[in-house]
Design brief:
Elements: E1 11-13, E2 24-29, E3 36-38, E4 44-46, H1 52-55, E5 65-70, H2 82-95, E6 101-105, H3 111-121, E7 129-132, H4 145-157
Parallel strand pairs: 2-5, 2-6, 6-7
Antiparallel strand pairs: 1-5, 3-4
């Protein structure tokens, strides 16, 4: 992955956090169904994350400060490589001082491999890095995306 921190603008998500001491969490969207939407032709397309709080209004009620980085071109998780793991670990390292926890939105095909690799690459991190994904995209009947993201954020914010 050749995308640098400078190439990934941070998107601040509106939440109920009013206290500066509330947990600051960074969400990374690397790819996967969890970040997809369905277009008019019923095809999966990448979601516009600047509208995430509209499709997941529950985010606005969270007592955390949330920021999001989305890859400009999501990675199909079946194509994730060790180079992608190193890049993600380095990116988390670059943002380490700015955030209290991290949530990685990832495709489910290889999420377990990526999470295992990062557990070794970030062995003594001292802050939570939580991976989550979804089987059904946001906005579809029985979608698990919202519940999975909310749960991951709660875990990342826990002390």
């Amino acid at each position: 992955m050749s995308v640098s921190r400078a190439d990934l603008p941070l998107l601040t998500l509106p939440t109920a956090a009013t206290d500066a001491a509330a947990p600051h969490l960074l969400i990374f969207y690397t790819g996967g169904t969890v970040g997809m939407a369905v277009n008019k032709r019923q095809e999966l397309v990448p979601m516009h994350f600047d509208k995430l709080d509209r499709v997941m209004p529950e985010l606005r009620q969270l007592p955390y400060h949330l920021e999001l980085l989305a890859l400009p071109k999501p990675i199909d998780s079946s194509n994730v490589t060790p180079a992608d793991w190193l890049w993600l670990a380095q990116l988390i390292g670059q943002y380490y001082a700015d955030f209290d926890g991290f949530v990685v939105l990832h495709g489910t095909d290889t999420m377990a491999y990526s999470a295992a690799a990062l557990s070794f690459l970030l062995e003594h991190l001292g802050k939570p890095v939580v991976f989550t994904g979804a089987q059904v995209p946001v906005g579809r009947p029985r979608s698990d995306a919202t519940r999975n993201l909310l749960t991951a954020l709660e875990i990342a914010a826990a002390e």
